[in-house]
């Protein structure tokens, strides 16, 4: 296998292996962050919790967003897996100028852009991200993340984030905390 393919393979398989229970019906349509500022969102975010649970995944997951000269977004994600730092770079775009909080991110020119919606953020502490893909409008597969500017967030902030997802008809009952210990 070429190294590039080896890197992409888990990403290609990820939606299949983690969608153990598909949700019936089309994607929910949650509200997103009003007056979203891309500029304030840039920089380093740590993964605090994610949906769905993925076992055998790395720890210390973080993503660094930065603006490129062509107005697209450089997305660099990293994790520590089996003691090794692994990095992957993608490109983010605003797919709809009327909805700047609805980004699309692709990790390879051969892969389509996946939705990456910022449902809510205060830019300085936490951000709630949602990604949902319809499958024939019969069912949908979704991913959700709570991100933090620090490796851990107060329990109250995490509880509030889960409430926001739930009130947007997103089932986060299987959301799990990400491992951010022993990273630095
Ligand atoms: C994030 O990316 C920017 C632009 O590439 C870089 O200058 C900065 O050092 C990066 N920050 C971290 C924490 O990796």
TrEMBL record:
> What residue ranges are annotated as transmembrane?
none
Q: Which domain of life is it from?
A: Eukaryota
| Subcellular location(s) of the protein | Secreted
Domain (Lipocalin/cytosolic fatty-acid binding): residue spans on this chain = 38-177
Which Pfam families did the record assign? Answer: Lipocalin_2
UniProtKB keywords: Disulfide bond, Glycoprotein, Lipid-binding, Pyrrolidone carboxylic acid, Secreted, Signal, Transport
Query: What GO terms describe the biological role, i.e. biological process, of this protein?
Result: brain development; lipid metabolic process; lipid transport; response to reactive oxygen species; tissue regeneration
| Signal peptide from the UniProt entry | 1-19
List GO terms (cellular component aspect). cytoplasm; extracellular region
Q: Does the keyword Chaperone apply?
A: no
Annotated PANTHER family = APOLIPOPROTEIN D
Q: What is this protein called?
A: Apolipoprotein D
Organism name: Salmo salar
List the gene name. Answer: apoda.1
């Amino acid at each position: 296998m070429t190294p590039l393919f080896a890197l992409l393979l888990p990403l290609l398989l990820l939606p299949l292996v983690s969608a153990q229970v598909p949700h019936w019906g089309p994607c929910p349509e949650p509200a997103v962050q009003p007056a979203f500022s891309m500029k304030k969102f840039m920089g380093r975010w740590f993964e605090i919790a994610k949906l769905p649970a993925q076992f055998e995944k790395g720890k210390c997951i973080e993503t660094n967003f930065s603006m490129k000269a062509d107005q697209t977004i450089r997305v660099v994600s990293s994790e520590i897996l089996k003691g090794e730092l692994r990095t992957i770079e993608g490109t983010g775009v605003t797919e709809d100028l009327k909805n700047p909080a609805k980004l699309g991110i692709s990790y390879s020119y051969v892969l389509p852009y996946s939705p990456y919606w910022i449902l809510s953020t205060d830019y300085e502490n936490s951000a709630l991200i949602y990604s949902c893909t319809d499958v024939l409008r019969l069912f949908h597969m979704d991913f959700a993340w709570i991100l933090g500017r620090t490796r851990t967030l107060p329990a109250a902030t995490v509880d509030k984030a889960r409430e926001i997802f739930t009130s947007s008809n997103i089932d986060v009952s299987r959301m799990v905390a990400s491992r951010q210990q022993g990273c630095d």
